[in-house]
Amino acid sequence: MSYVLQKKDFWAGALYIALGAAAFWIGRDYPMGSSVRMGAGYFPAVLSVALVLIGFASVARSFFQEGEAVGAIAWKPLLLIVGATALFGVLLQTLGLAVALIVLVLVSAAASQHFRIELKASIGLVLLVAFCALVFVKGLGVPLPLLGSWFGE
Amino acid sequence: METLSNLWLGLETALSFWNLVYCMIGVFLGTAIGVLPGLGPVATIAMLLPVTFGLPPVSALIMLAGIYYGAQYGGSTTAILVNLPGESSSVVTALDGYQMARQGKAGTALATAAIGSFFAGTVATILLAIFAPPLADLALRFGPAEYFSLMVLGLVASIVLAHGSLLHAFGMIILGLLLGLIGTDVNSGTTRFTFGLPQMADGIGFVVVAMGVFGIGEIIGNLENESTRTVMLKSVTGLMPTRDDLKRIAAPILRGTALGSMLGILPGGGAMLASFAAYTLEKKVSKTPERFGKGAIEGVAGPESANNAGAQTSFIPMLTLGIPSNPVMALMIGAMIMQGIQPGPSVMTEQPVLFWGLIVSMWIGNLFLLVLNLPLIGLWVRMISVPYHFLYPAILVFCAIGVFSLNNATFDVYLMAIFGFLGYVFRKLDCEPAPMLLGFILGPMMEEHLRRAMLISKGDATVFLSRPISATMLILALVLLATVLAPVVRRKREEAFQEEG
Questions:
Q1: For the ranges B117-121, B164-168, B476-480, which has the lowest average pLDDT?
Q2: How many domains does chain B have?
Q3: ipTM entry
Q4: Interface of A with B in 44-63 (CB under 8 A)
Q5: B224 lies within 8 A of chain A by CB
Q6: What is the pLDDT of residue B493?
Q7: What percent of chain B has pLDDT over 90?
Q8: Do A114 and B226 touch (CB under 8 A)?
Q9: What is the Cα gyration radius of chain A?
Q10: What pLDDT digit, counting tens, does each position of B186-205 carry?
Q11: A144–B181: do the CB atoms touch at under 8 Å?
């Protein structure tokens, strides 16, 4: 049993079941309509039921078939990369593009085992920020706040 | 002679100064990003897509197509020089190309890839010009039932031809279809799966999904086992192949082109399948199959021609039916929709300039590939040598800014982070994300056609079987599914994808 819990098929199935069930639950009040005039709920309901069924098939397979184990999860890169991306969104509004970019690069770079603070990399970072400010904000006119609301912009 | 006048119209469009410039920039940028290890064409196009928003539709699509084959070629360069294929379609190129590079024949391998790609691109462009109009004519007669069945066939075919588990391919397609339904239902105005968030009322952007799953998810996956790479730096000399080389690559290029062109049209096909099939074919017909894997030039010429031919002909179903056959075409369709063009058979008649301009520009783009890439090889080598730990934070920066610029919304950045997380989870569980992206694009279209078909037939579901074209397509889908489930074919299929390792 504990062996089954290591298999990719088991967890993939669990994921399908969870997502399918969630979609079905959220969509339960959408009007179903009839087969002639399908409502907003018809297609989603069919799809979410199908997804749950596929999920059960995948879980069942993990019991009866040999399968690969999921393996170690790279928690550090996962958290740092996803975190850095989300943090960029938060900081963009409050502290502006320059700070947000520096934080994004430093936090995400920390996920690498080769990460260390050095002069060459710092110069690269400054150049990257300058490049983004010039090309995206000045050149392409993307409305990114260079300095955020905390700096009174 | 209509083809000729159409091609003339295309030539006029593609040769206009600015379109030439955008085509060249596209090819250049595509190659530049494509050579970076770990970045396939999907991630490259998704990343560069925002750059094209400000352009008129024709120029934007020309540039995107340029980015696509640039990225494709860039991936091959990386495969040959560092044995790190950036995308699945150049995996087989790495087998023999890298061995050639180790023997000091990197230049010959790169030139072979370029020549093969150019020839294949030329043939595929001609095929596109010949076959697209009749197919579009046929598609114009399609009703909603036909479209629905066609999409079912397309999705089934993409499951069959995708690598990995069939069950997961199914699961991911359905998940993609569901994700595609997020937002306001066009028929009833009901908002679906938006969690009450106004930012999601228009649905979620496919670029957000693509960048998250393919861009960020891949970065996390790559960081799992960081390895140091050795670049075959000094050995890129002798670009011109010898007469003997040319003799040996001629037949593989022809075979690869033919095979790739056919496989590219199939839904779910395209570059990857084509290159695998071509490699297997070359090994089969060779008198000395033991040389393969040890630097056989045929093992570079065949797959490289095939993947470029496949990349090109996969535009046929996209341009004529409005149906993507692979994730790259899904991105192209997304780009067309963003430009206000409804993909489908009417594009050819309503937007002849766009249609034919794009086709001709593909050939010109291939010419650029040939003349740009061989002289610039030194630059590409330097780009490849940038260590990954310097590269990925920069990739992340461009993803973040790119996604923000879609709607100028930080919400999309958060959403991308979530899809990055999901992308890593899918990777860990061996759930191939490509079918999900196809489902995502097709979701709303499928629902719409299903509804219309049922409305017209007054709720009679047999309409899908009583209309001949629709029935044929459904039967084809069923046959495909049945064959792939048959034990013999199943084993073969696993063997075919084995080469990837």
A1: B164-168
A2: 1
A3: 0.92
A4: 44, 47-48, 50-51, 54-55, 57-58, 61
A5: yes
A6: 62
A7: 15
A8: yes
A9: 24
A10: 888 888 998 888 888 888 88
A11: no
Residue A23 with chain B: CB contacts under 8 Å: 178, 193
Residue B127: helix, strand or coil by DSSP?
helix
Do both A145 and A115 map to the same domain? yes
Q: Does residue A80 sit in the same domain as residue A147?
A: yes
Same domain for A22 and A45, yes or no, is yes
Contact A107, A84 (CB under 8 A): yes
DSSP state of A74: -
> Which residues fall within 8 angstroms of residue B290, CB to CB, at 6 or more apart?
none
CA distance B225 to B247: 41
Lookup result for tokens 């069942």: A60
Give tens-digit pLDDT for A61-80: 888 887 788 888 888 999 99
**pLDDT, position B501:** 39
A55/A86 same-domain check: no
| Cβ of residue B284 closer than 8 Å to a chain A Cβ | no
pLDDT tens, position by position, B244-273: 888 888 899 999 999 888 888 776 666 677
Q: Is the pLDDT score of A56 beyond 90?
A: yes
- What does the alpha-carbon distance between residue B127 and residue A68 come to, in Å, rounded to a whole number? 43
**Do A59 and A81 reside in the same domain of the chain?**
no
pLDDT, residue A135, reads 82
Asked whether residue A69 is domain-assigned, the answer is no
Place of tokens 């062109």: B261
Q: For chain A, what is the total number of helices (H) and then of strands (E)?
A: 5, 0
The pLDDT value recorded for residue B500 is 45
Residue, of B420 and B381, whose pLDDT is higher: B420
Dig out the tokens for B63 from the structure: 């540039």
Name the residue facing B459 among A34, A85, A132 (closest C-beta): A34
How many domains in chain A? 2
3-state secondary structure of B183: strand
Q: Pick from B443, B445, B173: which is nearest to B322 by CA?
A: B445
pTM, two decimal places: 0.85
Residue-number span of the structural domain to which B88 is assigned: 2-241+321-500
Residues A110 and A138 placed together within one structural domain of the fold? yes
Residues 119-148 of A with CB under 8 A from B: 121, 124, 128, 132, 136, 140, 142-144
**C-alpha B254: how far from chain center:** 22
Q: Are B45 and B81 in contact (CB under 8 A)?
A: no
pLDDT digits 0-9 by tens, B439-461: 888 888 889 899 999 998 888 88
Taking each helix axis from N to C terminus, what angle separates B144-161 and B434-456, rounded to the nearest 10 degrees?
Answer: 160
Indicate the angle between helix axes B352-373 and B57-82, nearest 10 degrees.
30
Q: What is the DSSP letter of B497?
A: T
Q: What are phi and psi of A33, to 5 degrees?
A: 70, -165
Distance CA B144, CA B148 (A): 6
Would B277 be classed as within a structural domain?
no
Which of A87-91, A120-124, B30-34 has maximum average pLDDT?
A87-91
Q: Which domain holds residue A19?
A: 4-64
Residues found in chain A: 153
